[in-house]
Design goal:
Elements (H helix, E strand, L loop, with lengths): L23 H27 L4 E9 L9 E3 L12 E3 L2 E7 L2 E3 L2 E3 L9 E4 L5 E3 L12
Parallel strand pairs: 1-7
Antiparallel strand pairs: 1-2, 1-4, 2-6, 3-4, 5-6, 7-8
């Protein structure tokens, strides 16, 4: 009767062959590839967010009390509207920004008094009221 099988080394035999060690080369190339993809992704996102691909809209300062039946407003000097981009109500009347209109002489039409979002708004003197894209500025009054 034979007993339980003996361990291969007990009989003086050679140990069974070991499986080949896994190469760390494959793991390193995956790390390099994933790191490269991450860096390229960040660069692409940064480039796209830095582009000036937003719409540009002009703004004129108008006397809000000067609206005629044809919908036009009288254009005034933009210094009247420089008070934090809010309408000014004083002894000389109410003044505010008129966005995207078509100017004809001292009158403007076909625009809006509602501030558009996600656009770059600038005045004829070159002042930037609002920058477009991410991080556009807004204000709230009390």
């Amino acid at each position: 009767m034979s007993g339980p099988p003996k361990h291969p080394l007990a009989a003086g035999g050679n140990p069974p062959p070991r499986p080949p060690a896994k190469s760390s080369k494959g793991m390193a190339s995956k790390v390099v590839t994933l790191t490269g993809i991450g860096v390229v992704s960040l660069l692409l996102i940064g480039y796209c967010s830095a582009q000036n691909d937003y719409e540009e809209v002009g703004a004129e300062c108008v006397d809000m009390n000067s609206r005629l039946p044809d919908g036009t407003y009288a254009v005034v000097d933009e210094d009247y509207c420089d008070d934090g981009n809010r309408a000014y109500y004083g002894s000389r009347g109410a003044y505010g920004w008129y966005y995207g209109g078509v100017r004809s002489g001292v009158r403007i039409r076909q625009g809006t008094t509602v501030r558009p979002a996600d656009v770059r708004i600038s005045t004829p003197k070159g002042s930037v009221i609002q920058r477009g894209g991410f991080g556009g500025r807004g204000s709230s009054g009390s």
